[in-house]
Amino acid sequence: MASDQQSQEARVLHVLSFDVEEHFQVSAFWSDARRQQWDRLESRVEQNTLRLSDLLAYAETKATFFVLGWVAERHPGLIKALAKQGHEIASHGYGHELVSNQTESEFRDDVRRSKCILEELTGKMVFGYRAPSFSITDRTPWALPILVEEGYLYDSSIYARFQPSKKVGMQTCAQEIMTTAGPIFEIALPTANLCGIQLPTPGGGYFRLLPYSASRMFLRQFEKTGTQFVMYLHPWEIDPDQPRMEGSVISKLRHYLNLERTEQRLQYLLRDFAFAPVADAIQPIRDMCQARVQGGAAPCAVFG
Ligand SMILES: [Zn+2]
Q: CATH number, domain at 42?
């Protein structure tokens, strides 16, 4: 009985994703003054991302890397290497400005610029987008149609509070949303209902906050219903030696909590569960990505 249950659970392929940005680019420490200093602050994204790729190679696991265009311009070899290793390269926008702080025109420029940089570097189409700090909300109803118009097939910027127009199926975290510009898949980050309160499930800071046993329990709950989980982390979350930034007590607590424990927890996670990139783990998206590639559109073709 127990082994039957384990083999049933082992068939669930979860999504593993990383948002590739510098430790000083996070929204919690954002200020216009700091933005002006980005090129003078200590860069640690390459060494941290390489450590992640080593962990993934050891676990024989591929992931989706949502990369900032700003980072890709400064570390082109890193992005090329990730793509060559078989990881999916997707977009985290260009400059890490919250979507809710941008105009429609600024958002379009941001997602277009990053997509083009990444496609030119890797020679492969970019299909996915994740907004800084999951900042696509009901205050930015124009964001998803713009992503469709710019050639994106899926978005992963919304905690599962958004009401989809159509569910693809109960066995997947992907939901198809019909926008004014056409359909797009939303890879929602799931929430868990605890006593009537919707709580984010472990990724990022929540993964660092909770003991690993709690994260494992969450994932096993997902597996009992055959539901795919969406895991996300940042390269700076496995870097306890990163320089400390000035900021509010809450921001510092959130950003620096348990950094020294994250790498080992990730190793446990890769040992205990099966993961893949979005474009492999989710069947409808895999089909659409393959169809787009077979259609022969060149990288950056959507904007000529
Ligand atoms: Zn980010």
A: 3.20.20.370
Range of the domain at 54: 11-189+228-234+274-303
Q: Cα of 67 to ligand 1 centre, how many Å?
A: 9
The reply to whether 122 falls in a domain is yes
58-111: per-residue pLDDT in tens?
999 999 999 999 999 999 999 999 999 999 999 999 999 999 999 999 999 999
**Ligand 1 centroid from CA 42, angstroms:** 17
How far, in Å, is the centroid of ligand 1 from the Cα of 49? 14
Residue 203 domain flag: no
Quote helix, strand, coil % in the chain, to nearest 5. Answer: 50, 15, 35
For the entire predicted model, the pTM comes to: 0.91
Using left for φ > 0, alpha for ψ between -120 and 50, and beta otherwise, residue 266 falls in: alpha
Identity (one letter) of the amino acid at 33? A
Separation of CA 164 and ligand 1 centre (Å): 24
Give 217 Cα–ligand 1 centroid separation in angstroms.
26
d(CA 87, CA 81): 9
Interval between CA 254 and ligand 1 midpoint (Å): 14
Query: Is residue 221 in a domain?
Result: no
What tens digit of pLDDT does each residue of 228-263 get?
889 999 999 999 999 998 889 999 988 999 999 999
Distance CA 127, CA 38 (A): 27
* Domain membership flag for residue 29: yes
